[in-house]
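chain below, 492 aa
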Amino acid sequence: MKPANLLFLVSDNHQRNYTGCYGHPFVQTPNIDSIAERGIRFDNAYAGSAVCCPARASIATGRFPHQTKYWDNVKVYDGKIPSWHHRLRAAGHEIVSIGKLHYIGDDEDDDFGFTESRLAMHIVGRKGASFGLLRATEQGEEARQTPRENYSKTGIGESDYVLYDRQIADEACTWLEGHKSAGEKPWALKVSFAAPHPPFIVPQRLMDLYPEADMPLPPQFTNGPGEAHPALQHLIWTHSFGELATEPFLRKTVAGYCSLITHMDEQVGKILHKLYDLKLAGNTRVVYVSDHGEAVGQHGMFGKSVGYDHSVTVPLVACGPDIPNGQTVGDLVSHVDLFPTFLESFSVTPEPEDADLRGSSLWRIAAGEIPARPAFCEYHAHGSKTGMFMLRRGNLKLIYHVGLPAELYDLDNDPNEMRDLANDPAYIEECDSLQKELRTIVDPEDANNCAKRDQRSAIELHGGVETILNGGSYGYNPVPGQEPVIVKFEKP
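prediction:
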């Protein structure tokens, strides 16, 4: 593959199935769809973790949380483990980031591998969502209202995220203007949006595209908390989602989510049109992915933080030089495949310390050169009592919870993951086999213990349990220049 420029587009919270090119019946994503039409659509792409910071660390490093110890939204990417950004920069390529990173911060000693970073969003105060650390204590987390309030804000308006994403797109277009002439070496531009992360506050013209009365209900919303897996019950409780999945609320939420996706897609379109106007498209590969998905009421929940496909699958499409037109790839792929993909795209040789990376080049996977592999994902952050590990092989998917019952789903016959087969006698062997395969990747109990040990240490660094409780929580990361809206925990 001949080296070419790279435009890497990243969104936040975009479920794979809420994309036109993945078969959604009405969500409007013409610009993302155009990438798939001109290139490759990966139909089974998985996040490294079901929450922002660990997923973004997997995108950067090509490694999973148990390998990096970037467990949650407090212990986040700090640049100390080499990223593909570092590798390309070391090879003499200009690599620029514009928009949300969600790394540790912007101190002069921070080095994430970029030659330049603009409009960067990082975790709050270099501490992040410290309230989530309490999962590692004996008393566990406190229930908080902020996630519920996040989704309750859905409606008409101009949120900070909407304005921020427009600013990001405009800045990316400005940067491209300054790089319309070919340099000595191809460049890489990472553009990362905050949407479609809640709150789903959008302009009227976009909400008009999705009348609430016409919005379909998610297929799993009817399952009450009492019927849910204990891990899901706990998540719904800690996030105060109980009784939220009513028909009117769900229709409004789906409308808001679709509207925000379309707004984000419009920003993608601005950048793609600029790429073509500047005649850069012929020498630029474009890759679009999200950090994780969004439940939008499925399984009676909102957000992510679980191993179900609505939370851990992501759209992944790519087009450009040497990429086939209109190809669909059914192989299981992951965030960790991006590191080797981008090095191959620039003909950069991996370093010896990269030899243990588990990912493979997406271009080689698309060409049929890589044997079928399982998909893996793990979660150790807020809303979980214990570590969650997902392993998919073919149509069967295991969700393993340390100290809690496992779950097993047949995605061919049950794509909405409604029927847990873990205790079905006909699937005992398959369930055991997947658990054994999981242990060739990670020791779940050891990773769970390590994560909680690190989180307990972080609690002390942040002043102890009482300090964290007194500090309250916030619903979402503020845009640069804004302070988080803190809500105190309710006293019993």
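The longest strand covers residues 327-334. The radius of gyration is 21 Å.
thats it, cya
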